[in-house]
Amino acid sequence: MDSITLATPDxxxxxxxxxxxxxxxVGHSARQFGRxxxxxxxxxxxxxxxxxxxxxxxxxxxxxxxxxxxxLMALYLTDATPVEEVRRAAETPEIIGYKLYPAGATTxxxxxxxxxxxxxxxxxxxxxxxxPLLIHGEVTDTEVDIFDREARFIxxxxxxxxxxxxxxxxxxxxxxxxxxxxxxxxSCGPRxxxxxxxxxxxxxxxxxxxxxxxxxxxxxPVLKRESHRLALVAAATSGDAHFxxxxxxxxxxxxxxxxxxxxxxxxxxxxxxxLYALTFERAGALHMLERFASHNGADFYGxxxxxxxxxxxxxxxxxxxxxxxxxxxxxxxxAGETLSWRASRRTC
Length: 348
Description:
The structure is a single chain. This protein is an alpha/beta fold. The chain is 32% helix and 19% strand. It has helices spanning 19-30, 49-62, 83-90, 120-129, 149-163, 179-187, 198-202, 226-237, 254-257, 272-282, 289-301; strands spanning 3-7, 11-14, 35-38, 70-76, 95-100, 133-135, 171-173, 192-196, 243-245, 309-318, 323-325, 328-330, 338-347. It is globular and about 55 Å long.
């Protein structure tokens, strides 16, 4: 197969940052995706509809000319999120849902939810108004091993306190990383879904330490054992409607990744569809890529599937060592390596 043409895919989990950094990277996603769910963990976080619409306007203004790309905005859930703001979110088509960051779980999550018991009224309102809850699914208890935090979250929070307590709430377990996470999502009905990143499909935790510390493979949730990676590949390539594409691509300056306390996040947006194609080809499942990348997410969120197409061509090309990020540099996933697929043509 020399090329594959898909209905235009979507990225249901994307970090763009803001200002000059956002302007430097937004075109990478717009080149490949029709829509993306934009994460709200800026400084300060995007907690209101008004702030989200202002942020969305800045994204649209930074798009390269003639790119057709729709930012779908997520709001940042806090202990103090008012019911009235949830209602406003439900009435605003540009808002896709609320993002739950357990406080301290990842980058810029300091203002996140400290305890699920603090937000029952907001969750009841989301259930009532049909506003999805997008979850960073990890506990933050320092006594829990970092490799076990997703499984513990599912066991102690997601299952008993969210899915069972709010039976009509639509829930997305973002960047699922474990076989326990896959099994839980598969056990649920159609109101529970999960996004899967390219880097969790391609790498296991050995990639963090192969030949030395590899800071550009460090992300949260952290890479897991090979058995977990294989479970993710099986889920993504199965066609199961619970699972869909979400890159969790997160741009950080090279200086902040290659430091004594490096930032968590992999920048995959530059090569996103090429990396997913690589994974699906290795699994002998290129014929399932369109369902995962273009259909399942739109169907879960009740949005129309995109009408355009994206063509991936088989060609050898080398990923740049670095990319501009405002006044600094950014190291993309697989920097300096040769890929065998390239997103070559997109129609709107």
